[in-house]
Amino acid sequence: QTDPGERRHGLVGDPLAAPTGTGILDGDTVSCIMAHWPSRRGGEKRSQPKRFLAAQLGRHITDSLLAINASARIIYMGDLNDDPVDASVRRIFGATNDRTLATPAKFFDPMYDLYQKGIGSLAWSDSWNLFDQMLLSPALANGTNGGLRYYGTRVFNEEYLRQQDGNFKGYPFRIYVGDNFTGGYSDHFPVFVIMVKEAPQP
User: Fold this and answer.
1) Mean pLDDT of successive 10-residue segments in the chain (202 residues)?
2) DSSP per residue over 160-182, as a string?
3) In 10 A of CB 106, how many CB atoms?
4) Alpha carbon of 66 to those of 29, 130, 193: distances in Å?
5) What pTM value is reported for the model?
6) Distances, alpha carbon 192 to alpha carbons 9, 103, 125, in Å
7) Could you give the C-alpha distances from 159 to 5, 116, 163, 189, in angstroms and in order?
8) Bridge partners of 23?
9) How far apart are CA 74 and CA 12, in angstroms?
10) Left (φ > 0), alpha (ψ -120 to 50) or beta: where does 63 sit?
11) Residue 91, by phi and psi: left (phi above 0), alpha (psi -120 to 50) or beta?
């Protein structure tokens, strides 16, 4: 759910918007698509069609980039409000947890295995979810022509980012609880992927 502080400061936009940027990362052209899929407010099943629409939009954007360059290096990332095992990610957007099976129609989801191990980026009712995901095109999953390729992924859940006491000890240390400012960081832990690249020959 949206943090009250975000609503107050006008940080909530169109849940189907997906800003896209393309730039140079260590000599390689990389496109990043930032997504925030609709929340589960009203119930997971009832709100599911909205996330299906967001997944379809994400797929349309990535397909458009791949139509220009089939070897495009793309990262589709954000708070998807669904886990790596959910249909919106696996079936509607198209994702696999096996990077050797990554294709233009099926991006590699490195968060899947973390989720299966019980690792999450946010907690709700003593259950961990991994809504924060980074889906990689096959060119980034496996590398092409000595360019950037996937090496690993992490949930950055260091102790200082955790609630230290009370009923929610161990949860992410939120900025707000209700309308009360706590001085925390976020109700989600950050996630990141590690990329490597072949060193140039002398």
Assistant:
1) 39 61 94 94 93 94 96 96 97 97 96 96 90 97 91 93 84 83 88 91 74
2) GGB--SSTTTTSB--SEETTEE-
3) 17
4) 13, 27, 21
5) 0.86
6) 26, 22, 25
7) 23, 22, 8, 11
8) 30
9) 25
10) alpha
11) alpha
